Structure formats: C-alpha cells, structure tokens
Amino acid sequence: MSRIYRAASLAAVTFCTAFGIAFSAPSFAETVSNAVSVISNDQNSQPVPAVAVEPLPEVPATSSDSAISAAPAGDDESGRIQAKSLDQLVSQQDMPETLDRETECLAASVYFESKGEPLEGQLAVAEVVLNRAKAGGHFPPSVCSVVFQKGQFSFVHHGHFPPIKRGGAFWKTAVAIAQIAMDDEWDSRASKALYFHAARVSPGWNKVRVAQLGNHVFYR
Questions:
Q1: Could you give phi then psi for residue 71, rounded to 5 degrees?
Q2: Distance of alpha carbon 50 from alpha carbon 207, whole angstroms
Q3: What is the structure's pLDDT at 78?
Q4: Which of 37, 85, 163, 217 has the least C-beta neighbours within 10 A?
Q5: Which H or E run includes 106?
Q6: What does DSSP say about strands 195-198 and 216-219: parallel, antiparallel, or unpaired?
Q7: Rounded CA gap, 34 and 100, in Å?
Q8: How far apart are the C-alpha atoms of 69 and 71, rounded to whole Å?
C-alpha cells in the first residue's frame, strides 16, 4: 500500500473515532445541569442547623373594665355601710336587745330633742353631743356626762331621763341615729357643731352658724 493511501486511511479512522466519542459524550449544557443538580441534591441532603428562638417575655394579664371586681355592696374599705340615703342607712341598723350606757345617752338626747324631725336634724343633734365629748375644755369627756351636764339639756331632770317609749318607732329611729353617729357612718351637715337652739328663738349667740336642720339651728 502506498504511503499516501495509508495516511488517508489513518486520517479517516481517527476522524471516525473522534466523531463517535464526541457523539456519545454528554453535551456541555447537560454536564452543567448535572453538576447543578448534584450540588442542589447535596445541599438538600445536608441537615439544616436549628436556630434558637428566644421566648417572648410573658405579659401580665390585665383585667378589663368589665372584669374589675367591685367592692361589696354592704361595706366600703373603711367598714362603713354603703347606703344611698340617710333614711336607707337608718333602716339598715340592727336594734340591739340591750344598749350600752353611752349609746343609750346619745339616743335619749336625739329622742327628746328631735324625735319626729328630719333625720338630718336628728343626726346633727347627735353630732353636737359627740363633738362636745371630744372637744375637752369646759365640756365633759363622755357622752353621758355631756348629756347630764348641768343646765345644758332641758329634758334632763335631776340627773335622769323622762320615761321613754322603748317599743315605739321614734325610739328605734333615735337608737339607729345614735349608732350611725357613733360609728361615723354618715357625713352630717353639722359635723363640727357644738351648740344648737330651737329655730323659734333667737338667743343672739356670738358663734359661727353652721346650718339649720329641722327645727334647730346649729353653731360652732
């Protein structure tokens, strides 16, 4: 075989071999795609590290307006009975089977000086007696000693009360007023008064007038 023929044959065989290899090998795009898939699969197969999440601080529960518990209807924080009127407060008082002497003296002053008058006027009479017992000076230091102080209350005779109808409504009201005044359960319009006189007279006292309640005028 001539050299030229053999060279041409070798060239043809080399070309066919190269063409076959090139035809059977994957394309560049497929190679890149496969490489990307391998990387993606490798990343997906790796465990994702857990991220620590700080818990939110607990917020104290607050009560809504509708959930606010109201004070008991009977008493407030100071222990005073809740009532919408002095008349209602009087009706809420319990009548004790026996009275201590101080309450009896105070109730007697209310009974004899102002029974049948408006309740505010009766309470003001009780306030005067209590204020005197607390004032000191020329007033005695207890309720009964104030009531029996000579020349102060016209219903006292020789150191005694006149007879009291203890089963009547006037006495029960007087006792209730005395209890309210002693327990400071109602604010009187004459809370600082030390003196009073009947409205029908004008003694011309040089004192500060506080109020007129019922049939009496009150001063301090």
A1: -65, 150
A2: 87
A3: 52
A4: 163
A5: helix 101-114
A6: antiparallel
A7: 108
A8: 7
Q: Which residues pair with 81 in a beta bridge?
A: 75
| Domain ranges within the chain, ordered by starting residue | 3-39, 86-219
Return the number of other C-beta atoms located less than 10 Å from residue 176's C-beta.
Answer: 23
Say if CB 134 and CB 182 are below 8 A apart. Answer: no
Helical (H) or strand (E) element with 23: helix 3-24
* Residue type for position 23: F
> What secondary structure does DSSP assign to 60-71, as a single string?
PP---GGGPPPP
Strand runs (DSSP E) across the chain, as ranges? 195-198, 209-213, 216-219
- Quote the CA–CA distance of 93 and 180 in Å, as a whole number: 8
Alpha carbons 59 and 63: distance in angstroms, whole number: 12
Residue reference for tokens 């309640």? 213
Which residue, among 159, 48, 169, 158, has the nearest Cα to 111 in the 3D structure? 169
CA angle in degrees (0–180, nearest 5) for 194-122-153: 55
β partners of residue 89 = none
Query: Under 8 Å CB-to-CB from 15, ≥6 apart: which residues?
Result: none
Q: Average pLDDT per run of 10 along the chain, which is 220 residues long?
A: 44 39 42 41 47 48 35 50 90 95 98 97 98 94 97 93 95 98 95 95 94 96
Instruction: Write down the pTM of the prediction.
Output: 0.64
Burial group, residue 40, by CB count within 10 angstroms (0-12, 13-18, 19+): exposed
Residues for the chain: how many in total? 220
